[in-house]
Automatic annotation (TrEMBL):
Residues 15-67 form the XdhC- CoxI domain. Residues 168-310 form the XdhC Rossmann domain. Gene3D superfamilies: NAD(P)-binding Rossmann-like Domain. The lineage of its organism: Bacteria, Pseudomonadati, Pseudomonadota, Gammaproteobacteria, Pseudomonadales. This is XdhC family protein. It holds the Pfam family XdhC_C.
Amino acid sequence: MDHLDLLVISQAKKWAAESRSLWLCTVLTTYGSAPRSPGAMLVALPNGENRGSLSGGCIEEDFLERLTNGELEPINQIIRYGDGGLPSGKSLPCGGVLDILVEHFAGGPEVLSHFAILEKGLLGSYSCRRVVLLKGLVRQVERCRSDGPRIDQQGDRVFIRLGAVRRLIVAGMSPVAEYCASFAIALGYEVIICEPREEYLKNFSLPNVQLVAQLPALYISEFGCHESTAVVALTHDPKFDDLTMIEAVRTKAFYIGAMGSAKSSVKRKERLKRLGGLGDDDLSRIQAPIGLNLDSKTPAEIALAVMADIVRTANGVGRNDL
């Protein structure tokens, strides 16, 4: 799941705690070209204040105008944008068609509980799905498997699966780490950089990145990694990289990698086997040298190769399929 999903649900939870009436929009289906994929969300107050996105901006503008003008019926409903959609004839610049699930929440303890459960799911505690009954105000959350379709519809019931947001844990600050963080934010990842050396953080100012003044291995040992987490060690410093690898292989992280040449990577795996007690199965989970072979030279190119390999793995594409 996109990190923006977590920001939307957290905002909805905050407004629900204040007993405020709110609207939640979710992209259900797209036809043709569309700027956001199914599952994208936006939450809004009746005055137009909002968080999230459904498109490149055109859909949001129209929806918020209808909302503030009081044109929307306060029930669970599907609104279509594009060909065959709203009477206004609102079309998308890209020529696509979007079906949007629109829900009204009146506020109260039940609403707060609903969003609190969803927030825990996005934080990796469990996988769940929302079950929304159209033409009314009935909805519920139930546990589910982590796989399966993101969106499903059976008659008047809409099912929306939610799971842990994509997360990148970066072990130690470096020029490559900064570019990785920047690329990961653009890709919708939650980014955590673990760096206990204060002098390495003085000039770092990338927004939406969580800085943790702690050894990465200790952070991973304390908080773990859910199945949507990628862990990368990019410092060439064994006390960062080796210890991070030892802790990371004990988690559900889907991607674990360490930067270094082929020769240094062989030596690292020998150390991890000898000193860290890692077996062959553990070592096979570590991508070292890290990233796709793009003949990268600069920090930005190396970071691009790293993030490309993470995306490849997340999408289930084998190296031999490239």
